[in-house]
Each structure stands twice: as structure tokens, then as C-alpha cells.
Amino acid sequence: MVVSADITLPEESELTVEEVNLSTATLRAGSFHLGKYCEQANNEFMLCRLEENDPRKCVNEGKAVTACTLEFFRKVKKSCLAEFNQYTTCIDKSSGDFGLQHCRTTQGVFDGCMLEKLHLERPGFGYFTEARVHATNRPKPPVEEKATYPDATPGLPDTAERKPARFGSRFYWMTE
Which residues form a coiled coil (predicted)? Predict the structure, then answer.
């Protein structure tokens, strides 16, 4: 990667956090509850990435997401380990693509345990696709001004003759 001299990169110590070393089946088994449990941290991180357009400015938000994920799986381990392991094993062994459709009974047992012990209900179908307004305390970054170039090609003057397109518009269905 090539960067200019005026760009400062964070030190490795700033980027070092405890990793979430879990298998695909484990992450898929906990994904719905994890998404709901860490929704605030995830939304904050994604908003930062969208607004800042620079991943260096969102390192702390990314650390918060990782910390929330670790906290969630520690709570699951403490409260519903047997049910979670059963569900994870089913996902891992029942299909080649980690499909959830073969494991609905073990999913029901795990969901019941999560509701009973952690008071965390499995989100309904389409929960993560719903539009939401995210409230944040982080200040909105200043809007960058549009770049202007002194040698840019000037546009047509307002008095210039504007002929219709030779072969018609490509938006022919919009004209009536």
C-alpha cells in the first residue's frame, strides 16, 4: 500500500484487541441474538464509517463492536452453553453450507434459553432490514466543499441553442 508522507497511520498497539476466535457455525448460531445485543455499537461503527470515509477515525468504534461481541459470547457461555453447543453442532454437521433449516428444534431450545436467562428475544424476520434512526453523541463531520478546478472546461452558456437528442431520449417512457 502506498501512502503519502502527510498521512499518519495508527500504531500497532492502538489496533491490537482481543480477537473473536470462533468458527463459522458458532458465529451463525449466535448471529441473530448477537446482532440485536450489539445493535447500538454496530450502528455507531457503521455510521462512523459512512460519515468519515476514513477507517482510521473509527478504530475506537470498531473496538467497541469487538468488545460487545466478546461480552455477548461470554454471557452465552455462562448461561446457555449446552443449548448453544447443541445448536452449533447441528449447524456444523447437518449441511455443507451451514444452513439453518435443518436445526429448527435445537434453535427453539437455544432461543428459549436466551429468552429465559438473558431476556434476549430472537429478532423477527426482517428485523435487520427495517429502517431506523440512530441517535449518536459523536459530532457530525464537516461537509467537504466540492472541488473546483481553475482549468475546468466551461459549460454551455445559457443562450446556446439546445437541440433535442438526435435519436430521442433514453427515458422515452417518462415523456408524455
Answer: none
In a domain, 66, yes or no: yes
Measure the CA–CA gap between 20 and 23, rounded to whole angstroms: 9
Number of domains in the chain: 1
Comparing C-alpha atoms, which of 34, 53, 64 is closest to residue 141? 53
Task: Report yes or no on 150 lying in a domain.
Answer: no
Nearest by Cα to 34 from 68, 84, 85, 82: 68
Q: Is the pTM of this model over 0.70?
A: yes
What is the distance between the alpha carbons of residues 29 and 100, in angstroms, rounded to a whole number? 8
pLDDT tens-digit readout, 36-65: 999 999 999 999 999 988 888 999 999 999
